[in-house]
């Protein structure tokens, strides 16, 4: 039986689409309270508008650029202030770049490289370092970092869905994963097996 998430408070970055959206909607359905952030304010609004009235009161949304430390700090503070605690964080914001990874490496300009590294490396570092400040997150707390990569065709003969990845994220945030620490989980349909 899955651990209860009722009353747990989680922060999800990149929650307006993809893995973040799927994780957020799954956590809401299981009774969690959520602080949701993304740079896509329209996507956040659309997601909230799709929720029933009861679930809307269990969500805080904010347009946040995770590469800006002050914005991340304020969002985490506001989430804790609204819900009284933070039990975990899922870093699911990410980018393949403005051209979505379809360019030769020698064509990548410094500005594009900096953008990708800022969102995919610096941003999650800022979120983790702010979330782990003493007194902010409950102990023990959970942090799940997600990302996408280009892999060969999987043995399962299909691409995975955002929901399949979100299911692993939800598990890692739940008490069911209380003995999991410092592990890398590959959710790739066996591509790297």
Automatic annotation (TrEMBL):
Key words, A-Z: Oxidoreductase
InterPro entries the UniProt entry points to = NAD(P)-bd_dom_sf, SDR_fam
The keyword Oxidoreductase is assigned to this record: yes
Recorded hits in SUPFAM superfamilies, A to Z, give: NAD(P)-binding Rossmann-fold domains (SSF51735)
Q: Which GO terms describe its molecular function?
A: oxidoreductase activity
Indicate yes or no for the key word Oxidoreductase.
yes
Q: Identify its protein family.
A: Belongs to the short-chain dehydrogenases/reductases (SDR) family.
* Protein's UniProt name: Uncharacterized protein
């Amino acid at each position: 039986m899955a651990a209860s998430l009722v009353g747990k408070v989680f922060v999800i970055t990149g929650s307006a689409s993809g893995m973040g959206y799927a994780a957020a909607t799954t956590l809401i359905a299981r009774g969690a309270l959520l602080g949701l952030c993304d740079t896509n304010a329209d996507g956040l609004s659309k997601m909230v508008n799709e929720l029933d009235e009861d679930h809307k009161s269990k969500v805080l949304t904010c347009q946040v650029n995770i590469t800006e430390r002050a914005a991340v700090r304020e969002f985490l503070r506001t989430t804790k202030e609204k819900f009284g605690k933070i039990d975990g964080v899922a870093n699911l914001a990410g980018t393949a770049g403005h051209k979505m990874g379809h360019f030769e490496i020698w064509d990548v300009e410094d500005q594009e490289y900096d953008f990708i590294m800022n969102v995919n490396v610096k941003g999650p570092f800022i979120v983790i370092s702010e979330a782990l400040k003493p007194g902010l997150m409950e102990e023990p707390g959970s942090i799940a970092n997600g990302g996408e990569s280009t892999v060969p065709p999987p043995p399962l003969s299909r691409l995975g869905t955002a929901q399949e990845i979100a299911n692993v994220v939800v598990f890692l945030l739940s008490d069911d994963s209380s003995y999991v620490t410092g592990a890398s989980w590959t959710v790739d349909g066996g591509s790297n097996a």
